[in-house]
Design a protein that fits this description.
The chain is mainly α. It has 12 helices and no strands. Helix 6 packs antiparallel against helix 7 and helix 6 crosses helix 12.
């Protein structure tokens, strides 16, 4: 039987033979975001991942290969994970702490709009609202569980190398959605050309998406050094993870019109344009910082015992807060972590 590492290497090799359609940050940006994040992990973090950095970076775009029409079940489930069209959920006062509850809320709004005869009903659904923050936080929790298993294996004197490779895959998987979330056109209904009222006469050309995230990234020959130079200090180590991810996506949304204005001015055809370069640097660095922070935080959280008492059994209809429509209990807020003991900075 193939080991986990050999099996995953075989999967990557097969994917490398199939060209990936550009659905999100191009392969260059996705890869550089992942490698920058892993190489920036603190010395008291999961440094074993640095030995897996090539595997993680090389697999950064694999989730996009799960979105081909040739695999329709996979595509239906996967497509929403790559976007968060914030305008579509503006009707909600609070974003539900459950993927299923969010989907049901969208459906109820769809029914309301349909009853009014509104054309907006056609896109008031999970595909055209997106589930990106749920994908990130679900991936984060998978990572915590895998890292906890690594700690347990090591404490028992067992080989944890296969589990370490599993977590490298999980980092690449979660990292893909983190990276998508830093691209402004992944967090708006204007993802593939401006839609609706257009007072500034922005382009409605679907190719604007690729012009920014792939063509321009290649044009300026983005490097890991470019991303690293704009990396923020370690953060996101306190507060609720879901709330932090939502705030991160809101920050990306502030640059939606910036992308369109740059395109309108011709900046995305000029590799020397400072504003366009800065936006690419800042957005890719934001993704790398967020991924680094989540990986480091997951490692710290994995050292804590599972918070079983903080979360009622979501499958028990008698649990406090049980929602019969979604069949679950909304997720509890993230556990508090003890202050991190960090080595002093070099120099």
């Amino acid at each position: 039987m193939l080991s986990h590492k050999l099996l995953w290497s075989a999967v990557l090799g097969a994917c490398a033979c199939v060209p990936l359609k550009a659905y999100s940050w191009g392969e260059r940006a996705h890869s550089l975001i992942d490698s920058t994040a892993i190489n920036a992990l603190p010395d008291d973090g999961p440094t074993y991942l640095k030995k897996q950095v090539s595997l993680i970076a090389d697999s950064a775009s694999v989730p996009d290969s799960w979105r081909a029409a040739s695999e329709p079940f996979s595509k239906m489930a996967e497509d929403p994970n790559h976007g968060w069209f914030r305008e579509q959920s503006a009707f909600l006062k609070t974003i539900p702490r459950s993927r299923v509850a969010f989907i049901l809320a969208l459906y109820r709004e769809h029914e309301r709009l349909e009853a009014l005869g509104s054309p907006e009903a056609k896109r008031m659904n999970v595909r055209w609202a997106g589930t990106l923050p749920y994908a990130v936080v679900e991936g984060y929790e998978h990572l915590v569980a895998d890292m906890r298993a690594i700690r347990e294996a090591q404490a028992a004197g067992h080989d944890s190398s296969a589990l370490q490779t599993d977590t490298a895959f999980m980092v690449a998987w979660m990292g893909h959605y983190v990276a998508d979330g830093s691209q402004p056109l992944h967090v708006t209904i204007h993802h593939d050309g401006w839609v609706g009222p257009n007072p500034h006469h922005y382009t409605r050309d679907h190719n604007v998406h690729g012009r920014f995230e792939s063509d321009y990234v290649e044009m300026i020959n983005l490097t890991e050094r470019d991303v690293q130079q704009h990396l923020a200090p370690l953060g996101h180590q306190s507060g609720d993870v879901f709330d932090l991810v939502l705030a991160y996506l809101a920050q990306s949304h502030r640059d939606v019109e910036t992308v369109y204005a740059l395109d309108q001015s011709g900046a995305l055809k000029d590799p020397q344009n400072k504003a366009a370069r800065h936006l690419v640097y800042e957005r890719t660095a934001a993704a790398a910082a967020m991924l680094r922070d989540l990986v480091y935080r997951a490692w710290r959280e994995s050292a804590l015992p599972p918070e079983t008492s903080a979360q009622p059994d979501p499958a028990d209809p008698e649990s406090p807060g049980y929602d019969s429509a979604s069949g679950t209990v909304p997720a509890a807020r993230s556990p508090s972590l003890p202050p991190s003991v960090r080595p002093p900075p070099a120099g």
